[in-house]
Amino acid sequence: MAMSMGAARRGKPKIRPPKKIGPDTSIKDTWTKLSNAIREIQNHNASKLSFEEHYRYAYNMVLFKHGDQLYNGVKTLVAEHLDRLAEEKIVPTFPRSGGTRGAGKLGDGAEAVERAMEGDRFLKAVKGVWDDHTGSMRKLKDVLKYMDKVYTAAAGVPPIYEVGLTLFLTNIIRSSTHPIHTHLISTLLSQVQLERDGETITRSTVRECTDILLRLNVSEREGGKNVYLMDFEPEFLRRSGEFYKLEAVEMLEMGDAAQYLRNVERRLAEEADRTVHYLSTLTHTQLQDLLVASLLTPHLQSILSMPGSGLVTMLDSNRIGDLRRLYVLFLRVPDEAGKKQLRAALRADIEERGKTVNEGIIDRADAAGPSTIGQDNDQGMEGEEGADPKGKGKAKATGSSPAANALSAALRWVQDVLDLKDKFDRILEQAFAGDMNVQISINEAFQSFINANQRAPEYLSLFIDENLKKGTKAKTEDEIEVALEKTIILFRFLTDKDKFERYYKNHLARRLLYGRSASDDAERGMVAKLKVEMGFQFTQKLEGMFTDMRVSAESGNSFRNYLNRHGQIHFDLSVNVLTASYWPQPIVAPSTCTFGAQLRPAMDTFQRYYDSRHSGRRLTWQGNLGTADVKVKFKSRSHDLNVSTHALVVLLLFEDVKAGDSLSYPAIKSATDMPDGDLIRTLQSLACAKFRVLTKNPKGRDVNPTDKFEFNEAFASPLARIKIMQVASKVENTKEREETQGMVDEERRHQVEACIVRVMKDRKTMSHNDLISEVAHQLASRFSPSMSLIKKRIEGLIDREYLERTTDMGSYRYLA
Asked: Is the separation of the CB atoms in 494 and 457 below 8 Å?
């Protein structure tokens, strides 16, 4: 057992301690051997050396307190080696042309190629020296590992590899002997500039040199940053700024905004690629900001307003790609300055287009003539021979009369606005990514120019009327639904929604009473849309009109049962009973008319029927809204005429008039007791329009009190059934518009007073400014009341003792 243990001890390898060094002469000999070895390493002859031996030399020097000699000696050797490498490897490759300080092009063709090749040789030389140096330093770091572990930590000095990096910075990059730094920075900048000018460079070489600068750090005293950030990046950004400012001027002079933006987009992409591939991502943000500051920020307005290619041209030509590029690039401008300018320019453009649309409607209205604008003749609606008794014939245009021109101009205005809205909705979605802020500017522009047209509420109601009434051509139900949905968008832009309500009630009333609605579902759907927008109060009366029509239809069956029990009348009678509070005032306003002996018995019969079902209600007959089917015998043949009730009353006057005899205008007026306005329109439809069943003497389109009328026995037409509708005001003339505005103003006065009372009743006491602000806010959904109107209504309520002023005269108190 003892022998085997001894055998184990004898076989185990032993680590011998380093030989002790004697006096200083031994240290000198050790350093000589070590320094020779270091030079061999630097000369790439490390394979001939013993790592263990030279590691032991360094170990012993540190162990015997000669670490400072070793440390400083190595520094000296490294510095000498770097100086030699600079002299032998780098200086001979200095570019002959030197670096350029300007921002312009570095030459074309052969000159540019030569510069690129010279720069590449120089940068490769720098990279070669770097590789040589770092390779040597890695080997030295291994040999001097004990020194780094013991001496450098105790002495508070950097490890030898870091010393090597510092020496490379001081002896190569920032050499005081050779202008390597100047050449390096300028060459790197030149290579970048050459590539910007379209030349080909060796990106990998540039990348390797920028990597060297990124790995070298300056002293804490100088900022502690790497050399790339300290020396290269500031000069690179300065030169880039100069270059792109010059390029911006050159590109703007070309006068093509789309091309300018494409160049900006290209440059941004190129510089982003450059920072990724051979500069540093640390530069990316600053470089992108610099491009925006040089190419975009100072030139926003110039780009937008560039003649023949700016925003207006892009919008005119629907250049979605260019507009999207414009939007994306303008978003890059700081503080949303780009988007603000784009929004302002977009709004100005839309307002200008809207102004053109508004001026177009004025021009068309002027062409229609100031005296007759607003008069539309429905008698152009004629049925085919053998048409059904309801008169559902084909519609023929009445031609280009002033009245037709006026209606056409109104409808054209709405359609132009809708087309413009569609255009910018597409642009908003496809080019501006549905940006809500841009949409706000678009909506503000539309609201501005739509309300600049004082007749917008009337025209919008007319457009809806045209889409909802019978005879609408070339439109499916889906197309009509889309058109109505779009009108709701325009309705939201109106500030005078109460004025629209008045026109819409009139047009709806005529569609319902004349049986012109193409679809009851479409009518109710439109009212439902308005209800969603404005609430129950806005559509309450409109829904009441539908209720009256439904109840009237139901009571028609009851009336026929009544006639079966109490005796028949000699013609069919259908009566619509209207609730006065639901229907617009022009419809239910008292209208005198003597209906004649032929019609009176039937009317009395219906009166008795109605009184038997309702007590305390009074019927007022409105002949101006009814229609009648009557067979009239002429010399050649008989025709079924569909006419207004007023026209029937006038025609019945000629039943007992002998052939050749006439009735004067005063005689007709005395017999019918119609207002002049209604009588003139009735006589015009019978004697002055396309189907002249009466003749007027003297001839002419206008009806005068001195005119005489006789039955036209010679009337002939190939149609069995003829529809002669009374001349109707579709587009208001100046006088009618003034009357409508007067009624609107009167209603607004009542609404303002009601709102003031409602607010004060709730608050009891309010200051003058708060009351005006609150009233304006509550009424804004219907119309925008002026401050003077609110003040006048407050004064009126004070006079009637609904309110009183407080002692400080700055507030109001509600009087219960």
From this structure: yes
- Is residue 545 in a domain? no
- 800 assigned to some structural domain: yes
Spacing of C-alpha 15 from chain mean position: 84
Rg (CA), the chain: 49
Out of 419-433, 594-608, 669-683, the most confident range is 419-433
Residues 143, 234, single domain; the answer is no
- Give how many domains the chain has, as a whole number: 5
From CA 511, how far away is CA 558, in angstroms rounded? 24
pLDDT digits (tens, 9 = 90+) for 632-677: 988 888 989 988 888 999 999 988 888 778 889 999 999 998 888 8
Phi-psi sector, 514: left (phi>0), alpha (psi -120 to 50), beta = alpha
Summarize pLDDT for 556-566 with one digit per residue, the tens. Answer: 888 888 888 88
Are the C-beta atoms of residues 264 and 300 closer than 8 Å to each other?
A: no
Task: Give me the helix-helix angle, 180-196 and 110-143, nearest 10°.
Answer: 130
Full-model pTM: 0.78
Distance, CA of 62 to CA of 56 (rounded, Å): 10
Q: CB under 8 Å, gap of 24 or more: what pairs does 165-170 form?
A: 165/137, 165/215, 165/216, 165/217, 167/75, 167/78, 167/79, 167/82, 168/82, 168/130, 168/133, 168/216, 169/216, 169/218, 169/227
| Whether residues 447 and 509 fall in one domain | yes
Sorting pLDDT into bands at 50, 70 and 90, what band is 535? confident
What does the alpha-carbon distance between residue 239 and residue 230 come to, in Å, rounded to a whole number? 15
- Identify the bridge partners of residue 226 per DSSP, sorted by sequence position: 217
Q: How far apart are CA 209 and CA 324, in angstroms?
A: 39
Give the range of the structural domain holding residue 810, as residue numbers without chain letter.
734-814
User: What is the residue-averaged pLDDT of the chain?
Assistant: 85
- The closest alpha carbon to 206, from 113, 100, 270, 119, belongs to 119
Q: What is the spatial distance between Cα 467 and Cα 415, in angstroms, rounded to a whole number?
A: 12
Beta strand pairing status for 721-724 and 638-644?
parallel
Distance CA 207, CA 274 (A): 10
Q: How far is Cα 165 from Cα 216, in angstroms, rounded to an integer?
A: 6
Torsion, CA 677, CA 679, CA 683, CA 686, rounded to 10: 110
- Edge-first strand order for the sheet with 765-767 is 765-767, 811-814, 803-805
414 within 8 A of 488, measured Cβ to Cβ:
no
Please indicate, yes or no, if residue 366 is contained in any of the structural domains: yes
Same domain, 140 and 232: no
| Phi, then psi, of 519 in degrees rounded to 5 | -155, 125
